[in-house]
């Protein structure tokens, strides 16, 4: 009998799609449920493209992001609720956190009901798995939890410490967010196998959950290098540093801005383009006096248009205080850009070879790493070539092969008989709220 796999993801992270594809390649009958995906040859897709021409760019951007020919053989079952919930939340006075919580609860409810189809293995994303993992244990279904971030309580503590250090007030964590974080903590204890994007994220799960490190596999995300052209030589001019991501304390944007300002005061020809949006008015006001004089805020750019930003840059800077991976780094490396990241950024960067790794929160170290790349064009070129080679090694084919190797090694893909739910580790019985997370 053909083994069956159930994959449910209400947010369309790439890991779920590629793991579904890997299971199908291994001979599994895959039942794949996800948020909106489409085949551009379908009547629905053609109608949406007509609407997109008369709509704002958000719908066109969505269609571009969801056009993935490699996954059409999976025949994904579209589930429109996640996109609908987020769209409603953005147009209502409700906080977006309510939509995200409802999205995760709905995905979890859907997956738990789909267990009635008796799959051999179920794949779920963190935050949307608690009920399903609990039921899977009683039914003898093996489970895989995809972890995309460090433990949220731990990450919140790191960010709040930084906010206090730069004179910003501690952020209040609302009820929906806190409930989602508590679900994630409990999910760590229930999954048979956890696949994390990086060792940084995996180690965070170990510290917060009490799970053995052997239960957590690390599989770096892949990169579609074929979609990104290697950057050619630029004309002469200031060295352009680029930041891409949410403009937030967690991403450490102020360290990049300050480093560029100080280097310019020393007479070095360097500029910084910041691409992204800011949802924190206090942080926006904190950054405002530092802007100008070679620092440009460009606003958000759709992901399928980022290639133009990489083509105009010389180096990527991602000074995150906590980052489960940092996909923009692999995209930039595919465009032959060296990257400066921190030791709390999960994406693989070989210090001194295809970029620099500096201690998180150390503005002086970031400034000196950027200085080296500004002053030495030959070093930038060598690191750019190494970055492209590194990105090519991080293919999604490699991701699928490594994920399946880890799952086979952990005996997760072998069916087991139903048994009573195992007791959860004491560390996860009642998640301890991190000191920085305040209940409303």
CATH topology of the largest domain: Rossmann fold
Please state the oligomeric state of the protein chains shown: single chain
Shape: globular
Unreliable sequence segments: 52-57, 59-66, 418-440
Mean pLDDT: 85
In terms of structural class, how would the helical and strand content be classed?
A: alpha/beta
The percent range for strand residues is 5-15%
Helix amount: 40-55%
Per CATH, the class of the largest domain reads Alpha Beta
Number of helices: 17
- CATH architecture term of the largest domain: 3-Layer(aba) Sandwich
Instruction: Summarize the biggest pleated sheet.
Output: 7 strands, parallel
Secondary structure elements and pairings:
Blueprint: E1 4-9, H1 14-25, E2 29-34, H2 43-54, H3 57-65, E3 77-78, H4 81-90, H5 96-114, E4 121-125, H6 130-139, E5 142-147, H7 152-165, H8 175-190, E6 193-196, H9 199-209, E7 216-218, E8 239-244, H10 253-265, E9 270-275, H11 281-287, E10 295-299, H12 306-312, E11 315-318, H13 327-334, E12 339-342, E13 355-358, H14 363-375, H15 377-393, H16 396-409, H17 426-429
Parallel strand pairs: 1-2, 1-4, 2-3, 4-5, 5-6, 6-7, 8-9, 8-11, 9-10, 11-12, 12-13
What does this molecule look like?
- The chain is α/β, with parallel strands linked by helices and 440 residues long.
- It is built from 17 helices and 13 strands.
- The strands form two sheets. Strands 3-2-1-4-5-6-7 form a seven-stranded parallel beta sheet, with helices on both faces. A six-stranded parallel beta sheet has the order 10-9-8-11-12-13, sandwiched between helices.
- Helix 2 packs antiparallel against helix 3 (57-65) and helix 6 packs parallel to helix 8.
- The longest helix is centred in the N-terminal third of the chain and has 19 residues, at 96-114.
- The radius of gyration is 22 Å and the shape is globular.
- Residues 52-57, 59-66 and 418-440 have low confidence and may be disordered.
């Amino acid at each position: 009998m053909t083994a069956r796999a159930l994959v449910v993801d209400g947010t369309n992270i790439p890991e779920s799609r590629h793991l579904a594809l890997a299971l199908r390649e291994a001979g599994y009958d895959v039942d794949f449920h996800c948020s909106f995906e489409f085949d551009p040859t379908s009547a629905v897709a053609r109608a949406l493209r007509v609407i997109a021409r008369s709509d704002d760019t958000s719908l066109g951007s969505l269609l571009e992001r969801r056009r993935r020919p490699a996954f059409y053989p999976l025949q994904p079952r579209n589930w429109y609720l996640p996109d609908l919930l987020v769209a409603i939340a953005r147009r209502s006075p409700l906080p977006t956190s309510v939509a995200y919580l409802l999205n995760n609860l709905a995905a979890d409810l859907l997956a738990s009901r789909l267990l009635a189809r008796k799959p051999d293995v179920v794949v779920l994303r963190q935050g949307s798995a608690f009920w399903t993992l609990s039921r899977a244990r009683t039914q003898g279904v093996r489970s895989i939890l995809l972890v995309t971030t460090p433990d949220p309580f731990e990450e919140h503590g790191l960010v709040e410490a930084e906010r206090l250090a730069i004179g910003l007030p501690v952020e209040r964590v609302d009820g929906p967010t806190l409930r989602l974080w508590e679900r994630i903590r409990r999910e760590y204890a229930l999954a048979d196998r956890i696949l994390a994007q990086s060792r940084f994220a995996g180690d965070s799960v170990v510290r917060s959950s009490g799970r053995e490190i052997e239960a957590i596999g690390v599989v770096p995300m892949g990169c579609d290098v074929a979609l990104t052209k290697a950057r050619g030589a630029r004309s002469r001019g200031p060295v352009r540093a680029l930041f891409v991501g949410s403009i937030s304390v967690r991403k450490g944007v102020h360290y990049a801005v300050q480093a560029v300002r100080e280097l310019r005061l020393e007479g070095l020809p360097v500029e910084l383009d910041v691409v992204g949006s800011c949802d924190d008015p206090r942080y926006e006001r904190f950054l405002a006096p530092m802007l100008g004089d070679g620092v440009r805020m460009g606003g958000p750019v759709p992901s399928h248009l980022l290639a133009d930003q990489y083509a105009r840059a010389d180096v990527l800077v991602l000074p995150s205080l906590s980052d489960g991976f940092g996909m923009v780094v692999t995209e930039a490396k595919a465009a032959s850009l060296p990257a400066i990241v921190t030791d709390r950024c999960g994406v693989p960067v070989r210090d001194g070879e295809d970029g620099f790794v500096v201690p998180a929160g150390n503005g002086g170290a970031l400034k000196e790493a950027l200085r080296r790349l500004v002053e030495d064009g030959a070093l930038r070129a060598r690191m750019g070539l190494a970055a492209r080679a590194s990105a090519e090694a991080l293919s999604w084919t490699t991701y699928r092969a490594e994920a399946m190797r880890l799952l086979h090694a952990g005996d997760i893909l072998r069916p087991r008989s139903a048994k009573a739910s195992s007791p959860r580790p004491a560390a996860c019985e009642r998640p301890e709220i991190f000191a920085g997370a305040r209940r409303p």
